[in-house]
Amino acid sequence: MSIRNLSPQLVWELFDDITQVPRPSKREEKIIAFLIEFAQKHGIDYQKDQIGNVVMRKAATKGYEQVPTVILQSHMDMVCEKNSEVSHNFDTDPIRTQIVDGWVKAHGTTLGADCGIGMAAALAVLIDPQVEHGPIEALFTVDEETGLTGAFNLGEGMLNGKYLINLDSEDEGEIFIGCAGGVDTVGKIDYSTEALPSGYDYYRIAISNLKGGHSGDDIDKGLGNSNKILAAFLYEAQRYDIRLCSFDGGNLRNAIPREANAVVAVPEHTALLFETSLATYISAVKALYAQTEPNLAITVGQAEAQHAIDSEAQNNLLAALIGLPNGVLAMSQTMKGLVETSTNLASVKFIDGQIVITTSQRSSVERAKNDAKNSIEAVLLLAGANVEHSDGYPGWTPNPNSDLLRWSIDSYKELFGSEPKVRAIHAGLECGLFLEKYPQLEMVSFGPTLRGVHSPDERLEIATVDKFYQLLLDVLKRVK
Predict the structure, then answer these.
(1) Total-model pTM
(2) For residue 480, is pLDDT > 90?
(3) Domain identity same for 321 and 227
(4) Which of 254, 337, 340, 343, CA to CA, is 20 to 30 A from 20?
(5) Is the peptide bond before 8 cis (omega within 30 degrees of 0)?
(6) How confident is the model at residue 131 (pLDDT cuts 50, 70, 90)?
(7) What is the pLDDT of residue 124?
(8) Residues forming beta bridges with residue 256, ordered by sequence position
């Protein structure tokens, strides 16, 4: 069965169209062209700013002419992650979707329902003849996933609305009214290489099959971080006089790393001790993560002889990876169950004579975010790294008294006979940046249920898409 036949059919058809368009972060040219062609085909007024954001405008339906403008906001880029055995080029290949037990997912790659399903819902509103609404502005931003570049650089005059509905949430039945702010901290360690004499055995150690996930939404689930797991063994293994040849782990700053691998050289006279220690470590780690990471795989194989990095760089790297905190740093004192502050050791890469360590900090408290950033910086500085920070982005302070929230709650209760949860989210949304530019905005965020976001296990629950679209249409009617 094609996803185009699912209900509501218009939303699913548009989502299927979106999956056929490559749209990696910072390379959104094809999806921008798709949106402009869509607007032109349907006679919709549109505007594109210098950074690439696109806004489409639709006039009110009859009887809603005096209603304030509502902004429907989603981002057009997607996280591009795949399983190592899957052949897929995110710059050219469409996403291959499948239906599995009530969910839509991709074949070994991220699905792009974050935030493709939000885009599809907004586009459906623009062309669905049955929808009743006031003036609509549908805003599609670029590069949300790797820097919120579109929201940071939103062009002047792009928005005129009073209310904004963000369509980038991942839990049906929950309405979000706040989010964490964030900042990335990157350390770079210089290294040189040298050929080793004879008398070394070479091993490749690989961590794989971790669940991964969103570094905001999933940071409190006790998931394994491939970089930390691999580094923990290598740090201890230095007692066997190992030399590190390479280390590669993770990819994206907003994804919990699922895979990592390293090549090490081990002196022949300590190789047996090294292998015994590694076997013991593997058993211990699998027992540690038996509940949260049942598919964790750690493989060991022989490797070809390689150049080793210099001893100082090796010591600094492994010390940094052990010393860097990872995961939840604090829980909120004002909202039960909400992660307040966290950090993610996202990736380790060897690039042009430098080891690049990328981390990401999030917090709903600005002071705590800065403290976490400084803590990461201090560890990296002690390891001899040069440290850089991104500009960061603000959180979104909840407004529990907004009319838009009240309409959303009333709509959900009448449609589905139950009370929605109203909460903040630890993930970053673009809403805080919009509020800085347009302080008069009232905002909420809601969406269908997504799981495994930012990983190849990303999946979208089919039944919740219909509820999401019903809620969106009913809220638009209530603004009257």
Answers:
(1) 0.80
(2) no
(3) yes
(4) 254
(5) yes
(6) very high
(7) 98
(8) 213
| 193 shares its domain with 133 | no
- Per-residue pLDDT, averaged over 190-200, amounts to 97
* pLDDT tens-place string over residues 216-246: 989 999 999 999 999 999 999 999 999 999 9
Q: Give the start-end residues of each E strand in 209-326.
A: 213-214, 243-249, 255-256, 260-267, 297-302, 308-309
- Structural domains counted in the chain: 2
Query: Quick one: average pLDDT of 310-332?
Result: 97
CB atoms within 10 A of CB 463: 14
- Cβ proximity of 166 and 441 under 8 Å: no
Buried b (16+ CB within 10 A) or exposed e, 126-160: beeeebebbbbbbbbbbbbbbbbbbbbbbeeebbe
DSSP 135-178: -EEEEEES-TTTT-HHHHTPPTTS---SEEEE-----TTEEEEE
Whether residues 315 and 448 share a domain: the answer is: no
Last residue of a domain, one of 389, 410, 439: 389
pLDDT band of 304, cuts 50, 70, 90: very high
User: So which residues are the catalytic ones?
Assistant: 77, 144
- Write the CATH number for 407: 3.40.630.10
What CATH number does the domain containing 373 carry? 3.30.70.360
In which domain, by residue range, is 21 found?
3-180+395-478
* Torsion over CA: 36, 153, 118, 27 (sign): positive
- Nearest-Å Rg of the Cα atoms of the chain is 24
Pair (411, 342) in one structural domain: no
Q: Mark whether 354 and 423 lie in a shared domain.
A: no
What is the full DSSP assignment across 273-292? HHHHHHHHHHHHHHHHTTTT
- What integer pLDDT is reported at residue 33 of this predicted model? 98
Kindly state whether residues 174 and 226 are assigned to the same domain. Answer: no
Pairing of the two strands 200-208 and 260-267: antiparallel
> Is residue 83 domain-shared with residue 17, that is, in the same domain?
yes
Confidence of residue 1 (pLDDT cuts 50, 70, 90): confident
- Distance (Å) of CA 110 to CA 20, 104, 183, 449, 453: 13, 11, 24, 15, 7
Q: Tokens for 159?
A: 């928005």
* 218 shares its domain with 349: yes
